[in-house]
Design brief:
This protein has 362 residues and is of the alpha/beta class. The chain is built from ten helices and 20 strands. The protein starts with a strand and ends with a strand.
Length: 362
């Protein structure tokens, strides 16, 4: 099959013919319909996070089941599915306590003694997040997919697989934003826009969007922001406090830098919670004024991994919100590209003007 392969950091992906294994027990072979290009993928291309190479990146995807292995009963060939990197085992402590996004990944990854799912001749290829969607096919554990109806295009389905689930989930599941509260979202890319949507769904009274790019602030208003702040001008935290009379109840950091994570905490009001979603480079230390935990009254900072999802429950709900006109998906698709244009998608992402590029497969 054709795939985009990361062979070396800080260089373009190579379009190559590679081999994909057949499904073993509990595994599903999927014909890729569409895959979003996420900023998380770019972090690995740029070497900010490490992965063994060669590797096939991509994790936000949808497609059609082509074949199933033994013991698979959840899907059949022809079913449409969305993938999710939060593949769950179903029997570890986190799964059994209702937090499958934090699963220990027991029994869902092939053992070193088994043949790799992806290879190039005799060379094993790393399967990124157990999905690797920058390819014509995906071979995944059955607990990495959710079955969906066939009334929604692949492009929109793919975005549910990460960006929507991460952003909306951070608001509804991780932070549990309450109706009537005030919310600030730092960074209005694909995930940030979905945080804004999540805040609207949660019934937030005020949703403040913060970014340096004018086009992103315009999109933020389209997605439900009540106020916007240009972060290219100094004094962001003070502006948030002035707008809200002391600070927001909830803030969300959706960029992935030390500075924006610190800002997200400092713009909180008394009793507020900051949720960091962005992939801050490994080894980065965040500096906070320890006295402000008491002086400004029980402020908290926390992380959110993939929107604290229970994706087989959450994703169908998000699709129903879309059908009802309460969740924007069409507007998230900034452009449709082919697999051969994958490096253009990364270049466009660096310019900072798009919500999401989507790779489509005929």
């Amino acid at each position: 099959m054709k795939a985009a392969v990361l062979n070396e950091v800080n260089r373009p992906l190579d379009i190559e013919e590679i081999q994909i294994d057949g499904p073993r027990p509990r595994e599903v072979l999927i014909r890729t319909g569409a895959t979003g290009v996420c900023h998380s993928d770019l972090h690995f291309v740029e070497g900010k996070y490490a992965t063994p190479m060669p590797a096939v990146l991509g994790h936000e995807a949808s497609g059609t089941v082509e074949a199933i292995g033994e013991q698979v009963t959840y899907v059949q060939p022809g079913d449409r599915v969305i993938t999710c990197l939060s593949v769950f085992c179903g029997h570890c402590d986190k799964c059994l306590s209702g937090r499958p996004a934090l699963c220990a990944r027991v029994d869902v990854i092939r053992a070193p003694t088994e043949p790799p799912r992806l290879r190039r001749g005799d060379t094993s290829i790393t399967q990124f997040f157990q999905i690797s969607s920058f390819a014509e096919q995906m071979l995944v554990h059955e607990h990495a997919i959710v079955k969906v109806a066939d009334d929604i295009p692949f492009e929109q389905l793919a975005l549910i697989g990460c960006g929507v689930t991460t952003g909306v989930g951070a608001v509804l599941n991780t932070a549990r934003v309450e109706p009537g509260s005030t919310v600030a979202v730092v960074g209005c890319g694909g995930v940030g826009l979905n945080c804004i949507q999540g805040a609207v769904l949660a019934g937030a009274l005020r949703v403040i969007a913060i970014d340096q790019v004018e086009t992103k602030l315009a999109m933020a208003r389209e997605f439900g922001a009540t106020d916007v702040i240009d972060a290219s001008v100094a004094g962001v935290v003070e502006k948030v406090r002035n707008l809200t009379g002391g600070g927001v109840d909830y803030s969300f950091e959706a960029i992935g830098t030390k500075e924006t994570a610190e800002q997200a905490f400092e713009m909180l009001g008394v009793g507020g919670t900051a949720t960091v979603i962005g992939m801050i480079p490994e080894g980065t230390k965040i500096e906070l004024d320890a006295g402000s935990f008491l002086r400004r009254g029980e402020r908290k900072i926390q992380g959110s991994y993939m929107g604290s999802n229970r994706f087989r429950v959450d994703m169908p709900r998000y699709l129903e919100f879309y059908r009802q006109g309460r969740l924007k998906l069409d507007e998230l698709v900034s452009q449709r590209l082919t697999l051969e244009q994958i490096n253009r998608a990364f270049d466009d992402m660096k310019q900072g003007h798009l919500a999401r590029s989507v790779i489509t497969f005929d």
